[in-house]
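Input record, target 12 of the design panel.
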């Protein structure tokens, strides 16, 4: 509008010209986009917004190159951390998009704007998660530090994950924490992109808002009360997001059974809300003790059998629930349990191949599996320290700061892995009719 001054011009952002078909939607048990079935051949790229920042941590040239490399191997979607909370925990990323309740780092949030805009130029989509059950971005434990006054818990320090999960799950019923969380959700969902002037809620580049990364009801012994609180939290938060934004899908970010105290009834009940548009699950054979990367031969058969069962049982639950499901995280470490980029990826490639083949076969059969995102894109990032731990100022890569840098990252130099990803991304794309 001619004559508008400064902020007013930004406020009068162009209304999106995107038609509904540009958005990723759910048609029965599949995704649809631009008039075709849409399958996700994706990467986890938690730090994508950080690279897009115009200031300190931003590396916009690297971001463009990473997106070009991903695009070239057929990756069509990235799963990205949208917000982080400033914390004194050593295992968390610095800086954070939120420096305290209601205090946001506009430079870092402008990084998300840049990422979304660059993805749009490449016809790629993004899943944005709005919190984290784990400590590496501050997350729910940091909210409890703000509003319960309890210390933000770092399981890398306490070495007690059961205690961590039980305490962190108190986030769901903490009214002040929920009020602040919803304030942040509103801030992001109603954001106007400072790069292209598009309101996020009118931008089809965004595929889905995700409640959190790996929200769990508590630990493996979660009580019925904790499970009920968790189920209500998912339903009410998903509904809140849909009230803010009628265009985009909403998902939970759940790992599936592993994130539901191994309780299938809980997984299905907590995702039955009409406001949860599709299901998610994650597969971690090493983290879950199925695979011993120091004894790969001895542990492979058991690990792959459990993995196949996990993959298939969740697709079957999705069919029962009549919703698409995405395997939005999976990973395995490098040969010899090495973090060194010079170590081989033979075993990881074999694992990826098994997953791609099973998902490709069931997708081709019309089952409700809508694709995958591997964990995680390391690209040009390189570990900076002899102990492989991240320090502020080091490259970002697929492994967040709570893990050794190189643990699960797929680097731009991992040629066999990239070739495998490309081959199976092409196969999924061939199903899009
Ligand atoms: O969401 C996650 N799932 C597993 C990853 C690798 O351990 C971890 O880094 C991340 O918190």
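The sequence produced for target 12 reads:
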């Amino acid at each position: 509008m001619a004559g508008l001054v400064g902020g007013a011009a930004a406020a009068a952002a162009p209304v999106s010209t995107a038609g509904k078909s540009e958005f990723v939607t759910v048609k029965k048990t599949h995704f649809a986009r631009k008039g075709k079935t849409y399958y996700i051949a994706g990467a986890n790229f938690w730090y994508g917004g950080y690279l897009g920042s115009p200031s300190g941590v931003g590396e916009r040239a690297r971001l463009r190159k990473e997106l070009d490399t991903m695009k070239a191997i057929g990756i069509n979607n990235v799963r990205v951390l949208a917000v982080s909370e400033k914390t004194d925990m050593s295992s968390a990323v610095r800086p954070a998009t939120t420096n305290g309740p209601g205090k946001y780092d506009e430079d870092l949030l402008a990084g998300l704007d840049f990422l979304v805009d660059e993805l749009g130029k490449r016809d790629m989509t993004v899943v944005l998660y709005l919190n984290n059950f784990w400590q590496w971005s501050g997350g729910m434990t940091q909210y409890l530090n703000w509003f319960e006054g309890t210390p933000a818990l770092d399981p890398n320090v306490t070495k007690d994950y059961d205690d961590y999960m039980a305490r962190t799950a108190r986030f769901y019923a903490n009214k002040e924490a929920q009020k602040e969380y919803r304030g942040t959700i509103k801030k992001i969902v109603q954001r106007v992109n400072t790069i292209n002037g598009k309101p996020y809620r009118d931008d089809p580049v965004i595929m889905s808002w995700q409640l959190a990364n790996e929200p769990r009801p508590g630990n493996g012994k979660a009580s019925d009360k904790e499970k009920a609180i968790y189920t209500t939290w998912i339903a009410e938060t998903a509904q809140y997001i849909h009230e803010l934004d009628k265009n985009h899908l909403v998902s939970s970010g759940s790992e599936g059974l592993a994130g539901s105290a191994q309780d299938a009834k809980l997984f299905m009940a907590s995702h039955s809300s009409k406001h949860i548009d599709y299901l998610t699950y994650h597969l971690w054979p090493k983290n879950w003790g199925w695979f011993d990367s120091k004894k790969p031969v001895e542990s492979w058969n058991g690990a792959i059998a459990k993995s196949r069962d996990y993959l298939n049982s969740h697709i079957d639950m999705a069919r029962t629930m009549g919703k698409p499901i995405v395997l939005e995280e999976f990973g395995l470490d490098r040969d010899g349990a090495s973090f060194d980029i010079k170590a081989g990826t033979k075993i990881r490639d074999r694992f990826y191949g098994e997953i791609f083949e099973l998902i490709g076969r069931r997708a081709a059969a019309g089952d409700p599996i809508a694709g995958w995102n591997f964990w995680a894109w390391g690209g040009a990032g390189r570990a900076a320290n002899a102990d492989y731990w991240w320090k502020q100022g080091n490259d970002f890569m697929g492994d967040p700061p709570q893990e050794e840098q190189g643990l699960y990252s797929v680097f731009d130099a991992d040629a066999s892995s990239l070739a495998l990803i490309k081959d199976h991304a092409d196969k999924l794309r061939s199903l899009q009719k």
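The radius of gyration is 20 Å.
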